[in-house]
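Curious: why these numbers?
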Amino acid sequence: MRNDSRCLSNSCQKNSTCVAGHKDDPCLCADASVDSVEELCNKTFNPCSSNPCLQNATCLGSAGNLSFTCKCPAGYNGPTCERADRDCDTNPCEHGGTCQSGLAGPTCLCSAGYTGALCERDLDECISEPCRNGALCRDGVDEYSCYCVPGYQGKHCDLEVNECASDPCLNGATCLNQIGYYDCICPLGYTGTNCEVEIDECLSQPCLNGGTCHDSLGSFSCSCARGFLGDLCDTDIDECSSQPCLHGGHCTDGANGYSCDCTGTGFMGSHCETLTPLCWSQPCYNNATCEDHADNYTCHCWPGYAGSRCEEDIGECRSSPCLSGGLCVERSWAGHYGLEPGLPPAFRYDRAEGYICRCPPGFAEIYSVDCLSAKRSFSFGNFPVEKDGCNQDTSLHHFNDYVYRQDTIAKCDLDHKLQGKGNVCQVLTVMKTSTNVTQTLAKMVGSVRIFLEITLAIAHLQTKKGFFMVAGTVQKFCMAVLIINAKTMEYDIEIDLNVITPENVSSVSSLNVRTGCAKKDWCVHHPCQNRGRCTNLWLSYHCDCYRPYTGPDCATEYIPGRFGSEDSSGYAAFPVVSTQNENFIISMFVRTRKSSGLLLALRNSTYLYMRVYLEGGKLTMLAPNSMKLLGKHSMDDGNFYLVTLKIEPNKMELFQSSHYLGFISSPALTIQSKDILYIGGLPDNTETDRNGRYFKGCIQDVRVNNQPLEFFPITTPPNPPINRTLINVTQGCTGDNLCKSNPCHNGGVCYSIWDDFTCTCPPNTVGKACEEVKWCELGPCPHEAQCQLVHQGFECLANAVFSGRSSAIFYRSNGKISRDLTHIIFGFRTRDTDVILLYAEREPEFVIISIHNSKLLFQLQSGNSFYRLTLASSVPVSDGKWHQVTVSMVEPLSQSSRWHMDIDNNKDTATSTAAAGSLNFLREGTDIYVADKAFDSLDGLRGCMSTIEISGIYLSYFENGEIPIKKPQEEQFLKISANPARTGCLQVDFCSSDPCMNGGVCEDLYTSYRCVCPDGLTGTYCEVNIDECSSNPCIHGNCSDGIASYECSCEPGYSGENCEEDIDDCDGHQCMNGATCVDEIDGYSCLCAANFTGRFCRYRRLPYTVCGNEERNLTCFNYGNCTDLGSELTCMCLPGFVGERCEKDIDECSSDPCLNGGLCQNLLNKFHCLCDMNFAGDRCEIDLAADLISSVFTAVGSVTLALLAVLSLAVVVSAVTANKRATQGTYSPSRQEKEGSRVEMWDMVQPPPMERLI
């Protein structure tokens, strides 16, 4: 409301006067000129400055404008809002307030949340500060709102927010709830606020030398190029470091590979993995051929050698076969070849049989047989066949225009054909063509053998006196022909009525007859492969092959069958061919690396009646109604083994290579032609599993009664093939590539070997697959910790020191613990009588290990039981000694069990009567408090604890950041408290040995000890006495150290505990003649007045003379005469004085002239001895006591002399005194001066006249 009057009370300020009715300038300023009135009033005055408006109304005005307006609140009016409204018609109450009329005017009843006369003010509910924990309060209408800082929630922000409740941490990270935020402890390989980012460790290209980096969680791995090794491919691989050569083979490292030298190991192959056949050791001597068998070997000797190893040279010359004094030379004597005329230049084993005769003159050698007068022998062939005289049982066959017999002629009766003396031939037998020709000659009476080379099966030789026939075989061979009465037959041999002599032997006339026997060596070029044994024949050779080889040259190998390739299930089945033999032999080569598998089985129409399988890598044979036969030798090492089964009517025998394993008895067993032989498995999977499971490996060269059963025939057989069944059996013996699955751990390099693999492991890793890391050899733990290997990793163990609640540590599982937690092991030592050692709770389950009234207490509530299990020790444990504790379930495999507590190796034990569950509630989501309990009134542990083990998982005192190598084990308890553990606690209480000496008190600090020493002692053991004198407490004296004290021996002139007080030596001083006493250390000096001198200023100063001038002068004391001799001033001293200025009195007593204790008195230029009463003389040299018995005269004389001496002395003293009396006082020496060397001290006289008394 605007006020019309402009002259209100106090409207004009500064003593101005309001003029009513004046429009422009109502205020007239006092003491102001007319010109300045308007300016002064208008520019300096604000009408609202005096608060003219009442009822808290608002005044509207401005400086320089004298008028104002009051904006009245509801219920009031008037120029200054001085009048109240009469009623509530206008409803002045705001914000819904209720108006009530009264004598004093209207009043307002305000709505909730408002206040003020007219309810114009909002009530500030935030005044009471209802919001907690730093929250911001926002006022509202009859309410308030709390805006919480991060980490709190609730109406009043009094509830802490669990930021981990939403599981914000990803990838298995552990969430730590903080005030207002959370922290994620990321597993290895992840980073980011929520561990959402996988770390690509390959970004830095860590792999060297062309290695390929493979990122993984928390780490990376390098696939190194061949020839390199190491985490970063920085090491050149030593392929021999993993010892890939088996059975002691010598490994030679090469470029990107290695080679194995199997010499002397008995094995062969690229890794020396295959057992070398016995013949490979060349056991046979003299170039014999070795043949391997199941259990041994056979040496096939060349003719001329014998023995099991062909080591014996047959001595053909032992029977002295050479006649007429001929010298016998054996063909096996290699040293004679090239020297003996009858021997070839070079020795050959195939010609080592037999001998030659070196005949004497006049005798001839008939081809190394006999020395007779006959000069020649002949061979012949290609003649017509004549059957007369021979009983031939077989027919003749033609081959390449030659006639030969297939079988042997058993008997040839030539008796009726012979016309001569003697019965020459009764039996002539020629063996089969597969071996060398052997002849049996009987009754060789008067006959001579001639070697003939036969190329026909049948030939005949006719003589003048008769004829006989000789039969041969298909091979070209040399045989002996009997010549009867050799002397009459000399040169008289007819062949088909043609006389043959050496002179007429030619290619035309001899009819293919030539002298001697020539045989080609077909084996010289070793045509038999794979160690086959070559037998030389006349027209060819024959190879005896080792298994599993076959063919004319042993070049073909029976194709092995591969069973279980890539872990498939398969088998082979063969029908049994009828056999006429009672014995039935099955043999095969077997190669495997599996310890189990069915090798072979025989089934008839009813059941399996024989099985051979592997059990634990060993051959096993089983038949119905018989004991199982188990072999003794393993054969699952990847080598080939020959397995032989011999079935006889009443027993079955089993062989493994050269080892006879034994037999089992069986009832009469007949193998029928319809029986089935199964190899490697059976058609039914269940039945196969009962009999050793399917075989995995290779089987080769299966033979039944020496007849091969081929999985894959190598040639088309002449007869129809056996109907065989092959299920998942493949050709060859190629092993599975086990490196495909990357079996080598920790960066190991995989090398595939047959059905297996070998790993080249990095350093500090071992195991077939490098799976075992020698973690502790890497030094992963801090120096104060001990490394302990655990499953899949390691832990760093140490003892920790706890010093109250502030040092308590909290743990929580990483959420990956799967094992059952059934025991707790820890050690401790403390002197606390009531303290928590370990506490964990997840309602309703909990575990508490504490010390109560000095006894160890174990409390557990776990599982389905709500009963609290309690175990307590019987003896106190708060003795400061180390105690080892194990608390475990009696039956750890049960869900509920009694618990047992063992302290110090059964020194104190306790077992509960009730049962409780395990500690599995600790595996997830439960905080474990060590050395304290949350929210209790007790202080934390003060003492020492070992690393706590809970069923093999340790509560480590070291965080991952403190360990250079990340712990790889999956199951862990993580330390979640931020405070570091203080390690280094000692298990031994050093105070138990009373190390403190001299009454010191030992204080156990757990990491060490401390001796509290009594006063005056120090050192580690209180062994050192503190030197209280080290601080030099004695100011003027010598310090003597004591125990916790010291004593000062003061220097003369000082006193006091520390010799700090200077003794006032002027007290009772003897300074005379007005001298001033000057206190000094241990004495005083007298400051003499003028003309006085001496120690006590008792003597007048002797005159002195001065000569020279102002620039150059000299003072001579003590009557010294000063003379100026040109350029030099000198003092001429009186006797008794010396010095440049005659300032020194000569001390005649310095030489101690007085004897017998006499006191020397220094006089001017002389001395005087004051003798003891028993001595006399100038120098007290006369002993008066020795002269007491002398004569009276002598006594009188002595007395007289003494009196004279005294008189003389008195005269002298009087004279001296008379001379000095004018300038010196009288002096009476004290006892102290008498005992010295001088009485008068005129030693030094110099200005100023002051001397020191010492």
The chain has four helices and 106 strands. The helical segments are 34-44, 685-690, 1192-1220, 1231-1234. Residues 1144 and 1244 are 5 Å apart (CA to CA).
